[in-house]
Hints:
Chain A has 21 helices and 22 strands. Chain A is α+β, with helices and mostly antiparallel strands. Chain A folds into 4 domains: 273 residues, FAD/NAD(P)-binding domain, CATH 3.50.50.60; 142 residues, Elongation Factor Tu (Ef-tu), domain 3; 75 residues, Arc Repressor Mutant, subunit A, CATH 1.10.10; 61 residues, GidA associated domain, C-terminal subdomain (DNA polymerase, domain 1, Orthogonal Bundle). Chain A is globular. By secondary structure, chain B is α/β, with parallel strands linked by helices. Chain B has 3 domains: 129 residues, 2-Layer Sandwich (Gyrase A, domain 2); 137 residues, Up-down Bundle (Four Helix Bundle (Hemerythrin (Met), subunit A)), CATH 1.20.120.430; 168 residues, 3-Layer(aba) Sandwich (Rossmann fold), CATH 3.40.50.300. Chain B is 41% helix and 17% strand. Chain B has 16 helices and 13 strands. In chain B, the strands form 2 sheets. Chain B has a 7-stranded mixed beta sheet with strand order 3-4-5-6-2-1-7. In chain B, strands 9-10-8-11-12-13 form a 6-stranded mixed beta sheet, sandwiched between helices. Chains A and B meet through helix 18, helix 20 and helix 21 of A and helix 4, helix 7, helix 15 and helix 16 of B.
Amino acid sequence: MIRRNQHFDIVVVGAGHAGCEAALAAARMGARTALLTDNPDQVAYMSCNPAIGGLAKGQLVREIDALGGEMGRVADATCIQFRMINTGKGPAMHSPRAQIDKDEYRREMKWRVENQENLSLIQETVEDINVLKGRVRGVRCRSGASYQTGAVVLTTGTFLSGTLLCGRWRAEGGRMGEKSTKKLSEALKAAGITLGRFQTNTPPRVNGRTLDFSRMKPQHGDPVPRRFSFSPRAKAPRMEQMPCYMTSTGPQAHDIIRAALERLPASTGETGAAAPRYCPSIETKVERFKDRENHLLFIEPEGRRTREYYCNGLFTCLPRDIQDAMIRTIPGLENAEIMRHGYGVEYDYVPPLQLRPWLENKTVGRLLQAGQINGTSGYEEAAAQGIIAGINAARLLKREKPLVLGREEAYIGVLIDDLVTRGTREPYRMFTSLAEYRLLLRQDNADRRLMRYGRENGLIDAARWERLQSKEKAISKLWSFLESHRRGGENLTKLLRRPEASLKDLAGDETDLKTLINDEEACEQVEIEARYAGYFERQQRQIEKFRRSEQKKIPDWIDYNAITQLRSEAKQKLSSVRPDSLGQASRISGISPADISVLMLHIEGKRRAEENT
Amino acid sequence: MNGKNQRPNCDPPAPQTCNSGIPGPVPPDPHADTIVAVSTARGAAMRAIVRLSGPFSLHVADSMFITDSGASSSPRSFSAAPGLFRLPEECLNVPAVRYTMRAPRSYTREDVVEMHVPGSPAVVDMVLDALLKSFPKNLRLARPGEFTRRAFINGRIDLAQAEAVMSVITARNKAELTAANARLAGNASDLAKAAENELFELLATIEAALDFDVQGIETMPEKDFLNRCRSLRERLSAESKKSRGELTGSDRLNVTMCGPPNAGKSSILNRLSGRKSAMVHKKAGTTRDPVSEYVEINGISFAVTDTAGVECPEPGPASDVKRSGGECEDIDALAAKRARDALESAQLVILVFDAGRPLPEGWKNIVAHIDRERTLCVFNKIDLPLEADPTPFSGKVRSTIYVSALKEEGIVRLKDAIERVVIEGGLDASPADRLFNARQREAIRQAVAHMKEAEQAVAEGLSYEFAAVCLREASDALAQVTGDTGNMEILDHIFSRFCIGK
């Protein structure tokens, strides 16, 4: 029997990394939530690399966890290799990264979704949205069922009019072997939403039985794996750890690739679907860096119960025979059997300038979006938007002020502000350089920065909150001890500032301090803050300046087209972004300081005019 | 038939392409206000210029001005017409010349009208009054620097050029004019932009190393970074030093305070510096030796020298000079000589008098020796009944400021006046080919300092993300030279300090 016209508070379309976080957050906030997916076996499926975290992305995962998201905990449970990368640099660059058993990951996430109260995981393919008076009211599915709802979170990934590409072969699909949907694209366009097109590539995966690991350099995880999650209950990885392997392409492979360049998908250029520059296909790398004789590859395990290995660095949509020939020139892969060939996927996205800072669509109210549909790439970026979209869908229904994180408080804030203010011309990936205040946005203090938001929204349980409180208490006790004690005429804080100094050494046999340094995380915070105090204060001053310009609000009534002094480009850009503050306006690409000055004048003039009347 | 009906004197107004120029009962945009100001120096002169800018200016001019030919305003982008300016309240018409510059071919890229009227202060006041009274809703007095601000906003000139406009106006000798013109042509912006680009590249290189390190991209060796950063920094500071000329030989601008004893010079110095380094006492003559203090006033560094007070700075009869100059035994004479030296050599002189007592006779004649452009007159102790008569100094100094160091009144006004002398080019009096003005030099000084910090961070073995923080600040500072910055405060700051009318 087809159940028609079911009602849910919130409907999440798509059960990928964004969809799962959105649905879990909404359900935990008390909203009756439906998570609709084409294929419930593929919940939180890792379509591309079998890894979570990495530079800037690891920080995102820690932030998601601090907000009460699921990604960090599931990654901890299913990790087969954990590394804290960049430990040679300062603490802001330290990033957790883990190889994940990808089958285990989706099973674990599905299990958690299934066990979540208020949340229904349902197999449906959404083909249409129902919009009335500027607001979304429900969705219609291929099965004929429809769902009435107060808010919809769209997390379509690569499935929105997805097209798969490999050489001259192309077919419709969102992932190899899975259908895409064109009808939803049409429905969005009909609702007045503009769509764009992006492309992304995957590398071949090979059978480990056919690899010669002795010819490659193994890369092991940290001897003592750490965790993504701040949860006191999170345990060390339960699975046996596995190494990755490093190898590289050589001139022979490059010759093969060069000879086959004309057999690339014609579409790449024609449709103008932009592919990410930071994650170039091997053919692009060979073309662009002609003088390089080799390119580094990482051969990464996809799980414990599979022999499949992922060839990181070999992103391609060259024809299959070329992939076969090319891969056999690579040391260690001479006899490699490709299990899945690399392919590209082209998909529709919604250029994110059409979004409000809380991820709601400006054209269609109560329609929120997260993940690749907003022009991003990466599981972590998707999940980060997912939890924010989920929280805000629930908050909108409760008529509460939406949650918007600032650039100065979270990578998530930077990510979303960049999307809705600057837009993106290629799939957006998080980098540390995008965060102006990155010295303060560290993975080690994500809980101290953000957990209160998770707690406010009921996503952080008492145990985790208590843990943070006791950590904060330990930190302030340590500080007051350091500040009030001297040794050899020197303040203890000063002593701790010395390179290589640690609280443990400082404590020595002093019993008072020894009892205070039991909390390792608290010690880490104090050590970092003492050592880099000068730089942190500098960033803090920058943040205060930044906040001042963010506080210069642009009133709602402003009509950019009526400000004659504005250049027409500025009028158009400001009208489409409708920035919240002069600070945000100044970040819009193509908006000059002169435009800001005009805006300032105009707002000030109007304010004075009103004062005078 | 058509030919007959055409009456030459009653031509309908020619169709105008620029709608903001159509005079009509309704102004084109009620929110885009029109500004007016006298743009010539105040005081009797051959003629004065009353300038209007904004969508309403043509309409205003048309209704207040009658051309000799009787024709209404010309549709041409630039036109000049002699005629009469009506003063309805006085039932008087003033002979004037009207210059019309239509948008966008004007200084502000708005419709601009200039009324050249006889340069009597009374007439100018009446003209201004008549204009403001006749159009109370659509016309207002320009704020300081607003014409230039509009020129900048409308993309007519960039920030460096906007500041250079000030220098052209205040340039007093040919060499200075050349430097100011070079600035106006964008040389300063070009130089700063080139440096900015180079800095940006350096920043991009280390950022790339930070963000792509894991992908096997080589990090820039620290030695290379240090070399590149140092070389750019040294070039920058050389440029800015070159442009500083022989002004001081130090990094700071020289300010000297002099005046009679117990006028409160030291108290003012302490107020300016926010410290208490100069000894103060209610007893006269507390300061015997000049005290120098480095003071940051509105972001610009100064070396302020506090001199001992003297009753009479004037060289008296010839014999007096000989005696004091020769033997140097008379302390008061020595102090007087120092004060005179300061008057001659300081870049900026602040005369300080006690408002609570009459001006000492010996100081009244000082006006003959002072350079108006680089002298400020301060009357301290305005908390006391006013006894001093400021008239000997009126018009002879750049501005007169009333303060109370005790009650901390007027100190902000004094600071602003000092900054204004610098920004308006009063201190840039030496004939060196200076490209950067004081504010720009200050920005460059900051950029250089931040670059040094970046080098320090790397030299200390900290990884590049720390240097990046400093380089970003350096880049922000450099951007302030050209105005290519999102930093909005600086814009407001600069524009509020332009003199009215230009």
